[in-house]
Structure formats: C-alpha cells, structure tokens
Amino acid sequence: MSFKGRTASTLIAGLVIAAVVGVYYMPQAQQPRQLQDGSKGGQRGAIASGDSVPVLATPAKLADVPVYLDGVGTAKALNTVTVRSQVDGKLIKISFTEGQDVEKGYELAKIDPVTYQAAYDQTVAKKAQDEAQLANARLDLERYTRLAATNAVNKQQLDTQKAMVAQLEAQTKLDQAAIDNARAILSYTNVIAPITGRTGIRLIDEGNIIKAADASGIVILTQLRPISIFFNLPQQHLPELNKGFAEAPLAVDAIGPDGKSVLDQGKVVVIDNQVDQTTGTVKLKAEFPNANLQLWPGQFVNVRVLMDTRRQVVVVPTAAIQRGPNGTLIYVLRDNGTVTVRPVTLSQQDDVQSVVDSGLQAGERVVTTGFARLTEGTAVTVSNAEDTGQATPADRPRPEGARGGRAAQKRNPGAAARPTANP
Hints:
By secondary structure, the chain is of the alpha+beta class.
C-alpha cells in the first residue's frame, strides 16, 4: 500500500472513533444543563426520576391569639413584719415553729409578766381607794347641802365640799387611765402576730432577756397569700396600658422558668405615676392569689400582661416560617404534589406559632421540615405534622418539645440559610 493510502485509512479510522466517543458522552453532557435550567427544569428532572423530597406539613388554622406584653419582675410580700417586743423582760416561752403559717392574733411568744402584773394590780387598788374617798365626799356634800338650806352651815363649807367631790372624781378618772395603761403594758408580755403570714427563722431563744430597743426582734413574719410582683414595661406602651387599665383590670400571668408554664394568674393593681427617666420604663404592681405558694418573696419572675385578643386570625407553626433576602416566606403545598414559595407578612410570632396577616389562607398546607432540598416547584412526599407532634396550638396544647423557629434551627442548622435561595 502506498503512503497516501495508509494516511487516508488512518484519518478515516480516527473520525470513526471520535464519532463513537461523541455519541457516548453527549447525553451525559446534556443532562446537567437540563437539571440546571431554572426551577422548571428541576421540577421535570425530579418528577422524571421519581426523586421527591420527604417533608412534614400542616394546614394553616384560624384561631384566637392573645396579645401580650412581656417583662421581668420581682415577687414581693404584701406585708412583712419584724416582730419585736414592746417591753423589757425575760423570754419565757416561744409558741411557734419556724416556717409555721399563723393567723392574725396568734400568740408567738411570752415575756415574764410578773412585774407588769404587779404594776397593774397597784393601779387597780389605787382606784379602789380613791373611789371610797369619793363616795364619802359625796355623802358629806349631801349633808352640807341640807344644812345649808337651814343656814346650819355657812356657804363656804358647802363650796369646799363640792370642790372636794370634783377633785376625787377627777382622781378616779386618772386612776382608770393608769389602769388602762398598765393593762396595755401587761398585754405586751404576750407577743401577738400582727398579720396572717408565715414565720421565718427564729431570731432569739427562750430564756434570753429581751428589750424593746432590740433591733433584731423575735421573728420576721411574711404574708405570702396574696403576693405582689413588681415589673417594668417600656414607656411606649403607656397609652395602651392606661387605656386597658381604665376599662378593666389587666390580666397578668407569672411564667415559670421553662418560659411556657403559668405559675399563677393575677391582675395589675397599680401603674406608677411617673416614668423612670434612667431606663425609660414605667413600674407596675400586680397581685396574685398564690394559693399553691408558687411565688416566693424576692424571686425573679417572667410576667406577661394580656393586652388584647385577636379573633380568628391565620396561624401556622413557627417552624414553617423561613427567611429570605426579601423577607419572610413559607413553602405551600400544591395539589400536584409540589411546593411553591409564598412571601408572607407576620404580625406576631413566638416560639410555637406565628400569625400571618397576608399571603396565606386558612386550610392551605405549609411545610414545616425538609427545607434544605426545597425550591420553587420541587416534588415532595408529604407526612402530616400532627403525626409527629408539630400541630398548631389552635388544635391542641403546646407540646413540651415544640420550640418553633429556634428549635428547628437546632435540629437543622442550615435551615435558616438555605431557604434564602430563589424565593
């Protein structure tokens, strides 16, 4: 074979090999372009391959949603009394146990009454003596009055006797006042509870000499039922606070450490008459029954004031709310098994539920998990959120583990960032 013939054969063989390689690689090169061709291409590729994304979903509900103002307060007893002795003497008896609930008038302790009883007896005896003298002076006055009518005695003696009777009458009144004073001092030897409350730790023991000037006292008595909580709210809320307080007592909830359980329910009794200029807040005082002693003096407590209740608004789990470059959005299920991205406007949000003002209707199903693989038109496989404990609070009590948006981010750290793409 000539040189030209061999060159032509080699060229033809190279073209055949190139054609075969091109046919082999062309479908694979076209497939990524198809999948990357916008959201519609993604939808066709997912549906064609049958690779749908598993998600949980729940329908949007209509519910009554309360509007609260939140604050942090300090519990304080309505009345706190340091029980002290009003007389000096030996403490001969303590009648209470530490931590005991006592009623007003209960005898807490007793001081040796011997000297005060003697002083009282002296005043009683003195009055009896003066009353006897007064009785005799009155008899003399009657005699002088009869004799003066017949000029048997002069008028000066009669006037002197009248003055004597008046003097002794005043003396008996003075004696009665001394008796009352001595009786009061004697009663101070019985130390009585001035209020209904709970005793604290005993500050003195039996057998000690106690004085009225002692600052420490015998025991501190604290009223626990009812109890008050002082808390501050920003001054911007003053108009609505004053308006609501004028119409009816404002309801207040004392919230437990978990941020959800209600320790007690009370009402606002006082809004302070001035704003604290250093903090820009106004102080409020609320009163709680504290029947189960859930609140304790000095305790820090989260409180929320019920300002209003929004009737029949659209609510969804907070886990369904996502953030995009243009604001908040929700993935809504379509009838054909795909999702669409819906921008929404929120008016109120907490850890469990969010109130949607616009962009969503009651009954539409929203996705609550699986956002990492979702875009506009993605095909999904749906499970009910109610089956996994993600139902909205409109249908059931708030679950122990339903924390909403922040908890969802903890379960899926990328959920807050990934939904920002292509809303």
